[in-house]
Amino acid sequence: MFDVFTNLGLGLSVALTLNNVALCFIGCLIGTLVGVLPGVGPVATIAILLPVTLSLDPTGSLIMLAGIYYGAQYGGSTTAILVNIPGEATAVVTAIDGHKMAQKGQAGLALGLAAIGSFIAGTIATIVIAALGVPMTRMGLLFGPAEYFSLMIMGLVLAVVLARGSLIKAIAMIVVGILLSCVGSDMETGRERMTFDLGMLHDGIEFVVLAMCIFGFGEIFKNLADPETRDVVRNQIGRLWPTLGELRENLAPILRGTFLGSILGVLPGNGAILGPFASYAVEKRLSKRSQDFGHGAPAAVAGPESANNAGAQTSFIPLLTLGLPPNAVMALMVGAMMIQGIVPGPQVIERNPELFWGLVASMWIGNLMLVIINLPLIGLWVKLLRVPYRLLFPAIVCFCCIGLYSIANDAAQVMMAALFGFVGYALYKLDFEAAPLALGFVLGRLLEEKLRQSLIISDGNPLTFLQSPLSATLLAVGMIALIVAISPSMRRGREDVFKDS
Amino acid sequence: MTSDGVGSGLMPRILSLMIVALGILQIAFSFKDPGPSTGHWAIRETIPVVLGVILFAITIRGYHIGPIAIPNLGMAVACPLAIIASGLAARDSRLPELLVFAVVLTTFCIGLFRYALGLSVPVAPWLLGY
């Protein structure tokens, strides 16, 4: 326990240098700025802003990216409350009661509770990360290639189970994602695979390119095709700070939300998405006035928002300790770390302790900053929400182009993105979710590497994955999850979880 | 499994077979439950955006397509082209407004990416030399 605080102390000493505080601040600010824009979710925000961090040192750039991430998350909630356009799945729950509160003239209270809830959740989640970081890393070091492979398979299966809609489509997207990651020269033999002799495919497909197309351009096509009716709240924003009584009433939902979100966030395969839904369901059941839910109940904003933020933060744990990104945002973080020359995994905490703990500490500082910058700036965000989409999306296109170009100073990447954008739109139209594709893509290379390593060790015997008890257990868990998901009663339940809200 | 079992081709082959199998399953299920219509495909809206991106790609640092050689034009030209071309995709686009916006945004981008962030994106090689 004492270690946790020594480590956090080291982290704070890194994160509190003037430079890093400034980066964290700028990250939060521009993250919110872009995240507030309707129709731009956290993934798109990070993809658009990634180039901004390219010229920084690794620690600084990760701190800034983390800031951008929290900013985007919080900006997304602001949009959900004020305009009823959730930027991503986790803000859907906030939009229900948050927007109803805004229509009643309590937008300020909803935003205030969301900010305070997020801050409390962030503080607790930071301590959870610090406490779990070292033991998880030790566990990660015990993993051989076979265990790593099975863990990733389990994570991918869970991602399928947690995705919305058709199971077949979700599995197909993951497989396509893994296949896309194989493009380029083979890392062991150097043989070219699926490059069609195109120079731009020789080094493989850059994840940022893929992400920007599917999430950036795909999103634009989607919005242009179905222009949303934006219903920016015209009412007074109202006071931002809750009274002591309101705070006391909402403290329990905040803490329960934090608890649920923290646990679900650690699950491989984007458990974080379940946090807000679970919190909403729990609060509705526990509340004495459950009939208010859906009509602007403060607890229905405070709880899910805390769960959202806690999950957003604890989903860093599998990434930082095992090198396995559990969702698309973390997948982008891997991309950013790779560009900076850091290979995520259990060795990071050993080799770059200042980076690891600096990042963890900066999460807390970032959450604090969000409260400080967002509440006074709310008027600015409301103005930004009124920017018409016809000007918004050309700006996004322009930023994406510059970003794509500056990743490798290569115009071919921009070209590739235009084509992938089309594909992204088609996938959306045909109801294929993009998140499993991104996850499969990011885990693909590692998956193949571990598969081949374990097959070489076992002399080509595929039973090696069942001979190690740990690996067999992990595969069994994945198998059970898949069977449960396929079973008819569970399938209906799965739809209900997402439909209920 | 042959000695080639862990070679370059193993993973792509397994994955391709899986995709084929999933595709057949998906087609089979679609007969049982055709699902909702995919609705309106916004081709008129997507083409200007893709065109804008392609214009950016071929002008930012020049491009050779057969006999046509596009010089190295930099952000000063590539950004407005991308903004105006893609901006026309909106049903309610207004050209004068878009032109002004393109100039403002391009200036902002040059200031931010080249000068504030120091990224080596060409600005206007035909005018400034970088």
Question: Top keywords for this entry?
Answer:
heterodimer, A: 501 residues, mainly alpha, two-stranded antiparallel sheet, 74% helix, 1% strand, globular, B: 130 residues, 2 domains
Topology:
The complex is a heterodimer of chains A (501) and B (130).
Chain A: H1 2-15, H2 18-36, H3 42-49, H4 58-83, H5 92-103, H6 107-142, H7 145-162, H8 167-181, E1 184-185, E2 192-193, H9 207-225, H10 244-266, H11 274-286, H12 299-314, H13 316-322, H14 328-339, H15 347-351, H16 353-374, H17 378-385, H18 389-408, H19 411-429, H20 434-457, H21 464-467, H22 469-486, H23 488-499
Antiparallel strand pairs in A: 1-2
Chain B: H1 10-32, H2 43-60, E1 63-65, E2 68-70, H3 75-87, H4 95-116
Antiparallel strand pairs in B: 1-2
Helix pairs in contact in B: 2-3, 3-4
Question: Would you kindly provide a written description of the structure presented here, covering whatever features stand out?
Answer:
- The complex is a heterodimer of chains A (501) and B (130).
- The model of chain A has no long low-confidence stretch (mean pLDDT 84).
- Chain A has one domain (2-499).
- Helix content of chain A is 74%, strand content 1%.
- Chain A is mainly α and 501 residues long.
- Chain A is built from 23 helices and two strands.
- Chain A has a two-stranded antiparallel sheet with strand order 1-2.
- Chain A has helices spanning 2-15, 18-36, 42-49, 58-83, 92-103, 107-142, 145-162, 167-181, 207-225, 244-266, 274-286, 299-314, 316-322, 328-339, 347-351, 353-374, 378-385, 389-408, 411-429, 434-457, 464-467, 469-486, 488-499, and strands at 184-185, 192-193.
- Chain B is mostly helical and 130 residues long.
- Chain B has two domains: 3-32; 43-116, no CATH class.
- Helix content of chain B is 58%, strand content 5%.
- Chain B contains four helices and two strands; from the N terminus they run ααββαα.
- Chain B has helices at 10-32, 43-60, 75-87, 95-116; strands spanning 63-65, 68-70.
- Chain B has a two-stranded antiparallel ribbon.
- In chain B, strand 1 (63-65) and strand 2 (68-70) form a beta hairpin.
- Chain B starts with 9 loop residues before the first helix and ends in a 14-residue tail after the last helix.
- At the A-B interface, helix 8, helix 9, helix 18, helix 19 and helix 20 of A face helix 1, helix 2, helix 3 and helix 4 of B.
